[in-house]
Amino acid sequence: MPFLDWVNKNQAQQASREVPYHLLKQEAVYGDSAENLLIQGDNLLALKALIPFYAGRVKCIFIDPPYNTQSAFAHYDDKLEHSQWLSMMYPRLVLMRDLLTEDGSIWVTIDDNEAHYLKALMDEVFGRKNFLANIVWQSKDTPGNNATGMAETHNHILVSRKTSAFELSLLPRNENQLANYTNPDNDQRGDWLAAPLTRAEFRERDFYALKNKVGKEIYPPKGSSWRRPPEKMIWLQEDARIWWGKNGDGEFPMEKKFLTEAKEGVVNKTWWAYDFAGSTRNASSELKGLFEGEKIFDTPKPERVVMRALEIASQAGDIVLDSFLGSGTTAAVAHKMGRRHIGIEMGEHATTLCIPRLLKVIEGEQGGISKSVNWQGGGGFRFCTLGEAAFDEHGRINPAVRFTTLAAYVWHFETGEPGQQAFDQPLLGIHNGTAYYLLYNGILGDRHPASGNVLTHAVLQAIHGIFPHAGRKVIYGETTRLGAARLVAENITFKQIPYDVKMR
């Protein structure tokens, strides 16, 4: 597969591995639930900080990154040179890929300035075989008569999956689609939709006569043929699945497609009109409705466009991530749809816009998609900032790192799994028959030598007594006073803090 190349690409490829891990510092909890996160800070650092806890757990990512349009926005530096923009996006896409579940997907809104370069970039990070669609979204619902060239009325939404495990959900039928199903002949099988029985292509096998209900022989129009072979057509006739019109004397037969036999929803299309997914004008109105008519963000997205993506790519309870949160639309929509959400925003409007908007959501505001999803309010979120780096340039552990944080790092490094357990004891867990232990910050208490941070005979006895495991054991600690022969006899691999604490 050909790859995109640009200045400083090598550095961009290394960036996701070299960016330091930072601590997440909880600043406040809003509402009655703390399972959702709003993080203020550089999204590259924040994404890396999430890896030990959320790797492989995020079902859907929806992002609206700066479009690199050479325009000056109040909240973003959207005037990046092309290579800088690609270097900015590459490591972020790598970290987002690592956060996705195996059946997860990423949705990226972008315009023509970078869309085709971004497609090549996403193919490189996620694999070309995992590209799903380039959705064309009619983002503007006005004609754009002031344009000096062609009026650009669309944006792209590029969609990639992590692996082939991803499955598209069908969209629910709307009232207009349901109205296409009627029952003019009072068929006992219920409402049906009339589907054409001809194709605009001549096929000799499928060019034959059909008799309507008054006995007249009907052939397909010249240059066409029936959509069904003779044996299938006989079955349709015998099962009263052909509609010849009210009097049965029609010359253009239609196949009856019953609503009761149809799929539970409709297949998504790659053209999203503004009446289906909203427009930028809708988005501005939604924000003004929330903030007393004040224009407080230049480039918001309408709630409906995010809702459509989440309908297709997630279920209630799934985790949704937006690392370019902007005005907070993705978090607001995910909250109303019963998804868990993580939003990352670097600017001051994380506190001046995103927090107030989410508080209004919790209170039950009725703008955007609220009525269509019957939103009544509730829930909550934690607001965090980025703290100090977890490790210095020499790999030494920051004293501010607590046991639970280091435990999550160790568990993820050893197993590749996110740290979801409580991490309140030396035994972090058992994975593929191996038990992993961490001796740090006096987790065993002052009863044991060096507060239990050193693997001694007494500490090993305590581990055997409280957290026994007959198989292989990996133990992290400051040092060990047990000899090599004893470690082999006990089936222990000892790893020293901080030197053997490595990050994925």
Explain how this protein is built.
This protein is an alpha/beta fold and 504 residues long. It has three domains: 33-166 and 267-386, Rossmann fold (3-Layer(aba) Sandwich); 175-261, no CATH class; 403-496, no CATH class. 29% of the residues lie in helices and 22% in strands. The chain contains 14 helices and 23 strands. It has helices at 9-18, 43-54, 82-99, 115-126, 175-179, 230-238, 274-277, 280-290, 303-313, 329-336, 349-363, 403-415, 457-466, 484-489, and strands at 22-31, 37-40, 58-63, 100-110, 131-137, 155-161, 192-196, 198-199, 210-211, 217-218, 225-226, 242-243, 254-258, 271-272, 319-322, 340-345, 380-389, 427-431, 434-438, 454-455, 473-477, 479-480, 492-496. The strands form six sheets. Strands 1-17-2-16-15-3-4-6-5-14 form a ten-stranded mixed β-sheet, with helices on both faces. Strand 9 (210-211) and strand 10 (217-218) form a beta hairpin. The longest helix is centred in the first third of the chain and has 18 residues, at 82-99. It is elongated and about 100 Å long.
Shape: elongated
Number of domains: 3
Number of strands: 23
- What's the total helix number? 14
N-to-C terminal Cα separation, in Å? Answer: 26 Å
Q: Determine the structural class based on helices, strands and strand pairing.
A: alpha/beta
Helix content: 25-40%
Largest sheet: 10 strands, mixed
Strand content: 15-25%
CATH homologous superfamily assignment of the largest domain: Vaccinia Virus protein VP39
CATH architecture of the largest domain: 3-Layer(aba) Sandwich
The CATH topology label of the largest domain is Rossmann fold
- Gyration radius from CA atoms, angstroms: 29 Å
User: Which strand order does the major sheet show?
Assistant: 1-17-2-16-15-3-4-6-5-14
- For the residues shown, what is the average pLDDT? 89
**Uncertain segments of ≥5 residues (pLDDT<50)?**
none
